Amino acid sequence: MDLVLVRHPKTVVENGVCYGSTDVEPDPERLASDAARIAPALPEDARIISSPMQRARLLAESFGPVETDERLVEMDFGAWEMQRWDALPRDEIDGWADDLLGFTPPGGEALGEVAKRTIDWWESLPRDQTIIAVAHGGPWRVLGAHLLGIPLEHSLRLEIEWGGRALFRINEFGAQLRGWNLF
């Protein structure tokens, strides 16, 4: 089976603002250009699954009929949502850096929770079909780390750009990374 992970386009949110679970819209120009660039590189007859958040779903819909799955939404940053990263309390940011998987932003969720629901999604998929999944940086980082056997606390090292793709081939040997940040 092939698994194609696609990150949503850049959004209309100003750079430097935390917007994890806020359902912000994609930049319309980037949506159109990413859709035109990505679609020809995708496998035909694949099942398309997306986060229900519009920045991912609208891109996925440009590829064909889409199923949505709540387990693919971005991390809920709670009180940090729509705040500038550089304005967040330093002690909270330090707490997150010290316990990446276990720290919960006030009113939000921990990255470990994102990992659990994303990996649950992955484990629920049949292995006999090609999957194109469109979602967010957080879920794709933790899933990429999981598939490659990298400790989840190192998942932030797997940066995937807006409109970037990752390709995994899943076979009897496990997950083989065929490309990361493909454009």
Question: Do you know the CATH architecture?
Answer: 3-Layer(aba) Sandwich
Overall strand count? 8
Rg, rounded, reads 16 Å
Mean pLDDT: 96
The profile of the biggest β sheet is:
6 strands, mixed
Q: Uncertain segments of ≥5 residues (pLDDT<50)?
A: none
What share of the residues does DSSP label as strand, in percent? 15-25%
Going by CATH, the homologous superfamily would be: Phosphoglycerate mutase-like
| Structure annotation, total helices | 5
Please, could you describe this protein's structure?
The chain is α/β, with parallel strands linked by helices and 183 residues long. Helices cover 30% and strands 20% of the residues. It contains 5 helices and 8 strands, in the order E-E-H-E-H-E-E-H-H-E-H-E-E. The strands form 2 sheets. A 6-stranded mixed beta sheet has the order 4-3-6-1-7-8. A two-stranded antiparallel ribbon has the order 2-5. Helix 1 (28-38) packs across helix 2 (54-61) and helix 4 crosses helix 5. The longest helix is centred in the middle third of the chain and has 14 residues, at 111-124. The chain is globular, with a radius of gyration of 16 Å.
The gist of it:
This protein has 183 residues and is α/β, with parallel strands linked by helices. It is built from five helices and eight strands, in the order ββαβαββααβαββ.
